[in-house]
């Protein structure tokens, strides 16, 4: 049996997962952007714990040293769309906001720092990248993996009016080194499923993707993406690891997460933030991925899993953790910060205590 007790939120059908995951994301967003002034369900101000529970002691501001001031209340960053059940969503015609032309100074193998910030913000070219019109605004830093998870975000988030897109910084937990137009591109899918649906001229997230011209060189691509993380997380201070406010992951039938595969040598990588992959056992072989220490250092680590094909690996993760299984490693190493959103099919014959998710944001 696993030595950790993650929160496992189960749903009769996967259709119920999208709304709950969206609520979980917004709760994390609110806790990050206003950790001492959140009013949920008309309760007293409190921050949100990672497992969907109200935690009045949770305060992430100290860990986000680069974002120490309050959210700009005069800046409207809500997207106003119909609820998911009523929305007729079509991609917007406006161009996608991109952010990948960042550079940084060299780093050592133990800590990373950057002493200058000269790149531009696509939302306002006169400001540093990652800044809003109020440069002191806090940012919600989220990393996502690809595949069906992005479809869940499309279904759950686009119909909500409380997503503060203009305060988001979006990174990718891994990426397949293919052109952005390729169906296997995580960024390409995020663009088509999320960014292209945001209303023209509305606040947009700053999205950090790979440099497409480097897809034939995994090492160079990983180095470039690590520099983006260093720019975003170590612009002012030397840090050992970045701290994402939320990291969203899937879990494959073989137990791989991000592009970290079972029994791979990269599972032992403990210095790099981003690593190249040249030998993925299925799908595009060339990739980049966040490393285990970065994944486990996030404030919240959330798995989204569906289908009976995942039940055998979930049984292993929850009942007899395997040290060579990436999902097991994360579930154990990030103990106390992990939540699972799954349908009942994925928990067939899995001995766990299921929880009913209570919506926190109204």
Automatic annotation (TrEMBL):
Residues 61-134 are annotated as: Disordered. InterPro entries: 6-phosphogluconolactonase_DevB, 6PGL, Glc/Gal-6P_isomerase, NagB/RpiA_transferase-like. Keywords: Cytoplasm, Phosphoprotein, Transferase. Residues 85-100 have a biased composition (Polar residues). Residues 135-340 form the Glucosamine/galactosamine-6-phosphate isomerase domain. Residues 105-134 have a biased composition (Low complexity). GO terms for cellular component: cytoplasm. GO terms for molecular function: 6-phosphogluconolactonase activity; transferase activity. The keyword RNA-binding does not apply. CDD domains: 6PGL. It holds the Pfam family Glucosamine_iso. It is found in: Cytoplasm. The keyword Cytoplasm applies. One of its GO terms (biological process) is pentose-phosphate shunt. Belongs to the glucosamine/galactosamine-6-phosphate isomerase family. 6-phosphogluconolactonase subfamily. May be involved in regulation of tRNA subcellular distribution. This is Nagb/rpia/CoA transferase-like protein. It comes from Nadsonia fulvescens var. elongata DSM 6958.
């Amino acid at each position: 049996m696993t030595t950790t007790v993650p929160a496992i939120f189960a749903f009769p059908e996967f259709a119920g997962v999208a709304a709950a995951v969206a609520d979980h994301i917004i709760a994390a967003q609110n806790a990050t952007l206003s950790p001492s002034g959140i009013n949920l369900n008309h309760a007293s101000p409190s921050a949100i714990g990672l497992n969907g529970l109200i935690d009045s002691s949770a305060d992430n501001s100290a860990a986000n040293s680069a974002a120490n001031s309050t959210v700009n209340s005069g800046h409207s960053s809500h997207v106003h769309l119909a609820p998911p059940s009523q929305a007729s969503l079509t991609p917007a015609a406006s161009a996608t906001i991109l952010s990948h032309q960042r550079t940084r100074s060299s780093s050592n193998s133990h800590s990373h720092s950057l002493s200058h910030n000269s790149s531009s913000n696509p939302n306002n070219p006169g400001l540093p990248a990652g800044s809003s019109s109020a440069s002191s605004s806090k940012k919600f830093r989220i990393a996502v993996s690809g595949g069906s998870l992005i479809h869940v975000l499309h279904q759950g988030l686009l119909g909500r009016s409380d997503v503060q897109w203009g305060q988001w910084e979006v990174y990718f937990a891994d990426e397949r080194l293919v052109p952005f137009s390729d169906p296997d591109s995580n960024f390409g899918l995020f663009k088509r499923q999320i960014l292209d649906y945001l209303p023209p001229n509305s606040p947009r997230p700053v999205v950090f993707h790979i440099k497409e011209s480097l897809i034939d060189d995994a090492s160079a691509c990983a180095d470039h993406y690590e520099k983006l993380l260093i720019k975003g997380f170590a612009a002012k201070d030397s840090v050992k690891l970045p701290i994402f406010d939320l990291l969203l992951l899937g879990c494959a039938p073989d137990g791989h997460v991000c592009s970290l595969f079972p029994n791979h040598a990269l599972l032992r990588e403990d210095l790099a933030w981003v690593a190249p992959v040249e030998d993925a056992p299925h799908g595009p072989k060339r990739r980049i991925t966040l490393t285990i220490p970065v994944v486990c250092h996030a404030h919240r680590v959330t798995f989204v899993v569906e289908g009976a094909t995942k039940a055998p690996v979930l049984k292993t993760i929850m009942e007899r953790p395997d040290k060579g299984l990436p999902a097991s490693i994360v579930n154990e190493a990030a103990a106390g910060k992990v939540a699972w959103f799954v349908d009942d099919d994925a928990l067939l014959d899995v001995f766990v205590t299921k929880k009913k998710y209570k919506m926190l944001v109204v």
